[in-house]
Amino acid sequence: MGSGKTRSETLNSLQAELRIQATRTVIFHSAVAARLGITVTDLSCLNVLSSAGPQTPGQLAERIGITRGGAVTAMIDRLERAGFVRRSRDARDRRRVLVEPIAAAVGAVAPLFSGLGAAVSEHLAGYSDRELEVLLQFVGTLNERVAVATDELRTP
């Protein structure tokens, strides 16, 4: 290892940095949500909708990890009142309600992430293509492991 640390020390340092990164991400998302006048759960909902497209309330509840019924309805109501989403009937199955983002309102979210996005892009510009591939693989695997760990905690 080029840093003079043993493998074990480097792994411990990496684990510590990942814990710090996770905490700072939660705090950052809380600040973004507060700036928008919504909750962190609401912001997570907007993220799901912007990446996956319209969802049923049940799909949103499952993806975000909140209960179906009251909690998801309250979240959708808050986002609808704030002008971020609307409910509509599914064109393929009129019995189903879909929650869809309102593009103009959701567009107000992106600028709050732009400074961080630019800083990360600037930092990543110094990495080689191979290093970026390794980082991509690492983050992808980490995301999968976090999803599995989350599912395990949710299973009674």
What can be said about this structure in brief?
The chain is mainly alpha-helical. It has helices at 7-36, 40-52, 57-64, 70-81, 103-106, 110-124, 129-154, and strands spanning 85-89, 97-101. Strands 1-2 form a two-stranded antiparallel sheet.
General description of the model:
The protein has 156 residues and is mainly alpha-helical. A two-stranded antiparallel ribbon has the order 1-2. It has a single domain (7-125), classed as Arc Repressor Mutant, subunit A (Orthogonal Bundle). The protein is built from seven helices and two strands, in the order H-H-H-H-E-E-H-H-H. The mean pLDDT is 94. The longest helix is centred in the first third of the chain and has 30 residues, at 7-36.
CATH topology: Arc Repressor Mutant, subunit A
Number of helices: 7
Computed CA radius of gyration, to the nearest angstrom: 19 Å
For the secondary structure, the number of strands is: 2
Query: Largest beta sheet: what is the strand line-up?
Result: 1-2
How is the biggest beta sheet arranged?
A: 2 strands, antiparallel
Number of domains: 1
Name the structural class.
mainly alpha
Distance between the termini: 42 Å
State which percent range the strand residues make up. 5-15%
The helix content is 55-70%
**Could you name the ranges where pLDDT drops below 50 across 5 or more consecutive residues?**
none
What is the approximate shape? globular
Spell out the helices and strands N to C.
HHHHEEHHH
CATH architecture group name: Orthogonal Bundle
**What is the CATH class name?**
Mainly Alpha
CATH superfamily label: Winged helix-like DNA-binding domain superfamily/Winged helix DNA-binding domain
